[in-house]
Amino acid sequence: SPVKLLPSLDVNHEYSISRSESMRQLFLPAAAAALLFIPTSSASAMYENAPVRPTDVESGNDTAATSSSPGSTSLPSGVSYEDLRPGTGDIVSEGKRVNIQWVLKRSNGYYVDSSERNDGVPFIFTVGDPRGAIAGLDEGIRGMRVNGIRRIIIPPNLSYVDGVEDDKPGPVPMGFGPKQRMRRVMTLLKDIPGESVLLDVKATRVQ
C-alpha cells in the first residue's frame, strides 16, 4: 500500500504563532485599560494656573480626589469642597445666575465628561433653583468667586437622583457612554461607602 506522508511541521512557525497569540492576549487588556486614563486637553484645560497636582487632573487613579486635606470644607449634608484656586471676582450666592466650566469624575478619579469635551459650552443655572443644578453642586458652589476653581465632592443622594436626561438638573453628561457611567453610579454603586460624584468647577460669570 502507498506510504502516507505526514505533513511537515514548521516548529519555528508554530512557536511564532503561539507566542504572537500570547502577546496579543496580554497586550489587549492592558491597552484597553490604558485608554481609560489617557490625559486629554479637555480634562486639563480648565486647570491652567491652578495649584493642582497633575495626578488630580489627568490620572485615572485620582486617590487625592476624595481624601481629606487641610483646605477642604465639609458641610452637614455630606458635601465637601476645596478651592484649588481662589477667585477674585463676584461671589456666587443665592439667586445669582452662574456660568461654569466643569469636569465630572467618579470618586475613584475615573473621568466621565466635561464642558470642554462638549465644545466649551458653559453650564448655566440659577443658584437655589431646584430645576437648575444637582443639589450637591448648588450647595457646594456657594461662596465661590468668579475665576476660581473649586473641587466639590457630592454624595450620590445629592447628585443625579432625577436622572441624566437632558432636561434634568445638571451639569448633565453628554452622550451614551458618559450617561451610562452615571446611571451605573446611581443604580449599582450609590449605597457603597465612599462612593461619590466629583465635580471640578470654574465660575466664569455671575449675574
Secondary-structure map with pairings?
Blueprint (H helix, E strand, L loop, with lengths): L10 H26 L4 H4 L9 H5 L13 E3 L5 E6 L11 E10 L4 E4 L8 E4 L8 H6 L8 E6 L21 H14 L7 E10 L1
Antiparallel strand pairs: 1-2, 2-6, 3-4, 3-5, 3-7, 6-7
Walkthrough of the structure:
- The structure is a single chain.
- The protein is α+β, with helices and mostly antiparallel strands and 207 residues long.
- 27% of the residues lie in helices and 21% in strands.
- It has five helices and seven strands; from the N terminus they run H-H-H-E-E-E-E-E-H-E-H-E.
- The chain has helices at residues 11-36, 41-44, 54-58, 135-140, 176-189, and strands at 72-74, 80-85, 97-106, 111-114, 123-126, 149-154, 197-206.
- Strands 1, 2, 3, 4, 5, 6 and 7 form a seven-stranded antiparallel β-sheet that branches.
- A hairpin with a 4-residue loop joins strand 3 (97-106) and strand 4 (111-114).
- It is globular, with a radius of gyration of 23 Å.
- Residues 5-9, 22-43 and 51-67 have low confidence and may be disordered.
